[in-house]
Amino acid sequence: MVGKIASAATAVSMHSRRSPKSKSVEGDCESEALKSDGEGETEGKDGTALEAKMSLLNGITVIVGSIIGSGIFVSPTGVLKYTGSVNASLLVWIASGVFSMIGAYCYAELGTMIRLSGADYAYIMETFGPFAAFIRLWIECMIVRPCSQAIVALTFSVYVLKPIFPECDPPEDATRLLAACCILLLTFVNCWSVRAATRVQDWFTYAKLLALFIIIAAGGYQLCRGKVEHFTFEGTTNDVTSIALSFYSGLFAYNGW
C-alpha cells in the first residue's frame, strides 16, 4: 500500500516538473486543432450557403403577387355572368372571401402543428401517408398549376388583342399563339436569371396594384356621384349550376391564400 502511494506521488511530481516548453507545445497543438475545426465549420457553412439574390422588396413583391393573383381581373366577369345581378354577385364575393378566410385559418393551424416544409405535400404525408401525398403533388404539378397558368395567359392574350379587334372577338388561333409565347417567355426569364425574374415580378406586382387602385378609385367616384341604379337583385338566377359556377369563379380570385 505504501509502495503504491509512493509511486503515485512520484508520477505527480514528474508531471508537475515537465518543462514549460512541452506544455506550450501541447497548448499550441490543442489550439491548432481547435482552429482547424473552426475553419472546417466556416468552410462548411460557406460551402452550403446560397448567395442572396433577392432583396426584402423582392420578397414582398413575390408574396403580394402570389396573394393578389391575376384571377381578380378574370373572375368578376364569370361571377356577374352566372349570378345575373350585381347584388347577388356581391354576396358571392363576400361568401367566397369568408370561405377563403376559413381555409387560411386551417392552413395556419396546420403550419403550427406540422412544422415541415412542403405545404400540402407535408400535411398530407403526415396525415394520409406517402401515396396520397404523391398523388396530390403530381395533380398539382401536372393539372392544377398548368391549367391556372393557361387561363391567365389566355386572358392576357384576349385583353391585349381586344383593342385590335374592337368590334368582334379576337381569333382563337391568335389568342392561343400569344398565350403560348407569353408562357414561353416567362419560362425563359425564370430559367435565365433569378434577378431578371424578380424584376419582372416586381413590375407585374406594381402594375396589378396600380390597376386595382384605378378600378377601386373609379368605382368609389361613381358611388359618390350617386350612381347606384345597378345595385339590385333583378335578374338573379335560381339555377344551382350557375350559382356553383359563380362560386368557382369567385374562389379562383381568392386562390392566393
Write up what this structure looks like.
The chain has 257 residues and is an all-alpha fold. The chain has one domain (73-253). The protein has ten helices and no strands. It has helices at 2-16, 20-48, 56-67, 75-83, 86-113, 120-128, 130-161, 172-192, 194-224, 240-253. Helix 4 (75-83) runs antiparallel to helix 10 (240-253), helix 5 (86-113) packs across helix 10 and helix 8 packs across helix 9 (194-224). The chain is globular, with a radius of gyration of 32 Å. It starts with a helix and ends with a helix. The model is unreliable at 1-45 (pLDDT under 50). The chain crosses the membrane at residues 55-74, 86-108, 143-165, 177-197, 203-224. GO terms for molecular function: L-amino acid transmembrane transporter activity. It holds the Pfam family AA_permease_2.
Q: What's the helix and strand layout?
A:
Blueprint: H1 2-16, H2 20-48, H3 56-67, H4 75-83, H5 86-113, H6 120-128, H7 130-161, H8 172-192, H9 194-224, H10 240-253
Helix pairs in contact: 3-9, 4-5, 4-10, 5-10, 6-7, 7-8, 8-9
Protein name: Y+L amino acid transporter 2
Region (Disordered): 1-45
Keywords: Membrane, Transmembrane, Transmembrane helix
Number of domains: 1
Radius of gyration: 32 Å
pLDDT averaged over residues: 78
Span of the ends, CA to CA: 80 Å
Please write the string of helix (H) and strand (E) elements. Answer: HHHHHHHHHH
| Helical amount | over 70%
For the biggest sheet, the summary is:
none
Helix segment tally: 10
Beta strand count = 0
Shape type:
globular
Structural class: mainly alpha
**Poorly predicted tracts of residues:** 1-45
- In percent, how much strand structure appears in the residues? under 5%
Subcellular location: Membrane
Transmembrane segments: 55-74, 86-108, 143-165, 177-197, 203-224
InterPro entries: AA/rel_permease1, AminoAcid_Transporter
Keywords: Membrane, Transmembrane, Transmembrane helix
